[in-house]
Design a protein that fits this description.
The complex is a heterodimer of chains A (about 250) and B (about 500). Helices cover about 30% and strands about 20% of the residues of chain A. Chain A contains 6 helices and 9 strands. Chain A has helices spanning about 1-25, 40-45, 70-80, 120-130, 150-160, 245-250, and strands at about 60-65, 85-90, 110-115, 135-140, 165-170, 180-190, 205-215, 225-230, 235-240. Chain B folds into 3 domains: about 45-210, no CATH class; about 225-325, DNA polymerase, Y-family, little finger domain (Dna Ligase, domain 1, 2-Layer Sandwich), CATH 3.30.1490; about 410-500, no CATH class. Classes of the chains: A alpha/beta (about 250), B alpha+beta (about 500). Strand 3 (about 110-115) of chain A pairs antiparallel with strand 9 (about 365-370) of chain B, so a sheet runs across the interface.
Chain lengths: ~250, ~500
């Protein structure tokens, strides 16, 4: 009898909450803010459709070779995203993730869980579980082979949990179909090291990367932005454009 | 400083000393006494109380009534051994047995047996040979002979003891000493009726309790009733669906008991007894006390589906070995949706971590701790998120927090360490222009790499006392294709290794 009464009360409460939510302009099932969040750098924010990183999206980061800098860029974005509440899940099947590398970015390790699945099936299961969880703010994972059905499941999981999923993949996967919301390619730029004067430190200079938006589900692909990661501080900035040759000639009085 | 070891006391460290002074004294002393390495632990009264309660619960074999002394920070155990002594061959033998058993677990007990709690407490704390042993405080003291006050002789035993043996506050003891009432015998010389008006009701009460004029109750520490359930099959069963159904029934039984107590399960042990006298244990733990049978069922099934059964199952025994209070939060109609979402998110996260730990294993779901160590592979430590279903004690948690804070690199540049560190440095072939010079070309993973820029060397060396000495010159290199790697050369041999990739 009492359980019937409790169910009735719960039902009433749910209905009233829905009405309150509608009055406040929220739709049913909306748990967290779904507005795109800033990436911390205007050029990159503009590159993403909707003006930033939208919770519930799966991002595919492609790079031709290992050591190309895609991971470093993703972690800088995650450092920015982690200002909001939630746990960051690092899926690390290769057991190579090295925490001191990200410590200077101000990452709170109390809010980072590292999972080391032993098989490909476990990697996909872990990814799906983590992406679906509302207590997680982001998931990062190197992922090579994934078929259409698995990819779609991951995308739906990210959507259900309103989470960011950052998948680091080799460029040779570029020809395969993708369910990711965004597919970006990161490549190192020639003239990689900037002038020491730009960043006074013994490991002076920065790392220049080109980020190209290859595909996006809602918006126009094809945007390119050149970024520089400061080696000393980890700051991210847009590579300053070269001065136009005509301007130099005019300044010289030619 | 709350307590110090015998070795520390010999160097002048006494309870009440400021920590900085104690540190200075011990550092000076440790150079003289090479065996003594100072070790500091944070004072945690709550953890001490838990330990003492556990000890009291483990003493049920001597007496059904074992409690703690009446004090905000109790330090003594009280036994009511009425009617128990003959089982051990007399009071003397019982007392010796207890002291011997404590000694086996590394505890030195000062024990006294008397008609009243007050008399036993006073003798145990202030009897001459206990005091002498306490003053010696050496590691050699393993067992102290207990004192048994014969029946009806508690007054005589208390007579020579100092006034502090009456369990009085320090301020009252000081006042009584100023009045030349330094011993219980002197206090006893005064008319008993005048004690309360002169010195307060507390003094009179303690005096009467010690003398046996008024009773004193021992509040026993009761070990929690084990919460368990069991199922015996009439025929051996190997069907996993049938097993899962029975597990659910047993979990529901446990949940029914625990809901009434407002407790949840934090660690659950499930034993499957199989044919051929073989058995298998499934242990599941949870970050938060769980009252929901469904969640525990899921964790048990995750374990069960990855376990090979040694035979058909005859019986299932299930026991909740660690319990905790369930967290409630009041539901509110007008509560902000964000706030409700936060509670849900925290609960979902705890469930996720339980699920991951049980399917993949606790050693695969980890938290990172930074360690202030120059050797790169030792600069981080991994700890399971789920410590076998138990929360780390407060003392350990504080130490972890301190370690993590200490591990924050000070002035290390952001790009100084690679995102991917090879579990084992990989030997590589490197070409240098000059001996001990920077790398020009190297070969890794079947590819020749031409070095375009390099930074370094960053010399990392460790002390000989840590084992095999590590002496490495690290270089961050950037290749012609823009990739970045972390290489090092062993100082003695000149061999090159790739240790990390700046992903």
């Amino acid at each position: 009898m009492s359980s019937v009464a409790t169910d009735f009360q719960q039902e009433n409460l749910r209905e009233l909450r829905e009405r309150l939510g509608r009055m406040a302009g929220r739709s049913d099932g909306q748990r967290r803010r779904l507005t795109a969040s800033d990436t911390g750098i205007a050029a990159l924010t503009n590159l993403f459709p909707g003006g930033g990183l939208r919770p519930g999206s799966l991002l595919e980061w492609l790079s031709a070779e290992r050591g190309s800098g895609a991971g470093g860029l993703v972690w800088r974005l995650l450092g920015h995203v982690m200002r909001a509440a939630g746990m960051l899940v690092v899926v690390d099947p290769g057991r190579g993730f090295y925490p001191p590398a990200v410590a200077p970015l101000g990452i709170d390790f109390e809010r980072v869980t590292v999972v080391r699945p032993g098989s490909r099936a476990d990697v996909l299961w872990t990814l799906e579980q983590a992406l679906r969880c509302a207590g997680v703010s982001g998931v990062v994972c190197p992922l090579e082979q994934v078929n259409d059905r698995e990819f779609r499941r991951l995308q739906l999981a990210a959507e259900a949990g309103d989470n960011f999923g950052m998948l680091l993949r080799p460029s040779r996967m570029c020809g395969r179909s993708s369910w990711a919301d965004l597919r970006l390619e990161v490549s190192p730029l020639s003239g990689n090291v900037s002038e020491p004067g730009d960043c006074p430190h013994f490991v002076s200079g920065g790392r220049r990367l080109r980020v190209e938006l290859l595909h996006c589900r809602q918006g126009t692909a094809g945007g390119v932005v050149d970024l520089e990661l400061c080696d000393a501080t980890g700051d991210l900035r847009v590579v300053p454009p070269l001065a136009a040759a005509t301007a130099v000639r005019r300044a010289a009085g030619a | 400083m709350v307590l110090a070891s015998g070795c520390a006391v010999r160097q002048g460290v006494v309870p009440g000393l400021p920590l900085a002074e104690a540190r200075a004294l011990l550092e000076r002393g440790s150079s003289r006494e090479a065996r003594c390495v100072p070790h500091f632990e944070q004072h945690d009264p709550a953890a001490d109380l838990d330990q003492l309660r556990e000890l009291a619960a483990s003493c049920q074999r001597y007496s059904p009534l074992v409690g703690l002394e009446e004090d905000p920070e109790p330090q003594s155990l009280l036994f009511d051994v009425t009617g128990c002594a003959h089982l051990f061959g007399g009071e003397e033998k019982l007392a010796r047995q207890i002291v011997r058993d404590f000694g086996k677990s590394g505890l030195v007990a000062c024990m006294a047996l008397a008609d009243t709690v007050g008399a036993a407490w006073g003798v145990a704390h202030f009897e001459k040979h206990f005091l002498q042993a306490a003053a010696r405080i050496t590691g050699a003291v393993s067992e102290l002979l207990p004192v048994v006050v014969p029946p009806g002789r508690q007054q005589a035993a208390l007579h020579p003891l100092p006034i502090a043996a009456l369990r009085l506050p320090a301020a009252v003891v000081e006042t009584l000493q100023e009045l030349d009432l330094g011993t219980i015998g002197r206090l006893r010389a005064l008319p008993r009726d005048t004690l309360a008006p002169r010195f307060g009701a507390g003094v009179a009460r303690r005096f009467d309790q010690a003398g046996g004029f008024i009773p004193e109750v021992i509040v026993p520490v009761r070990p929690a009733e084990p919460v368990s359930a069991e199922w015996s099959f009439s025929e051996p069963v190997s069907d996993r669906h049938a097993l899962a159904a029975i597990l659910r029934i047993l979990l529901d039984q446990l949940a029914t008991v625990l809901v009434a107590r407002q407790q949840g399960i934090q660690r659950l042990e499930c034993r499957l007894l199989c044919t051929g006298r073989r058995s298998i244990d499934l242990v599941v733990g949870s970050l938060r006390p769980q009252a929901a049978a469904a969640h525990l069922e899921e964790l048990l099934n995750l374990r069960l589906e990855r376990t090979a059964l040694p035979g058909e199952v005859l019986r299932i025994q299930m026991q909740a070995t660690s319990l905790g209070p369930i967290e409630f939060h009041q539901e509110s109609l007008f509560e902000e949706i964000e706030k409700t979402g936060q509670h849900d998110a925290e609960r979902e996260l705890a469930t996720l971590l339980d699920r991951l730990s049980h399917r993949l294993g606790t050693r695969r779901v980890l938290k990172a701790r930074l360690v202030p160590d120059p050797q790169p592979e030792c600069a981080s430590r991994w700890e399971p998120v789920l410590q076998a279903g138990e929360k780390p004690p407060a003392r350990k948690a504080a130490a972890i927090a301190k370690d993590s804070a200490a591990g924050q690199p000070g002035n290390l540049p952001a790009a100084a360490r690679p995102l991917w560190l090879s579990p084992q440095p990989e030997p590589i072939a490197v070409v240098s222009l000059v001996p001990d010079g920077p790398p020009i070309r190297f070969s890794w993973d079947g590819h020749d790499q031409v070095v375009r820029h390099f930074w370094g060397p960053e010399r990392i060396e460790t002390g000989w006392w840590r084992g095999p000495q590590v002496g490495r010159d690290y270089y961050r290199v950037e290749t012609a294709t823009g990739q970045r790697f972390w290489l090092f050369r062993r100082q003695n041999e000149g061999t090159w290794f790739l240790h990390g990739v700046f992903e």
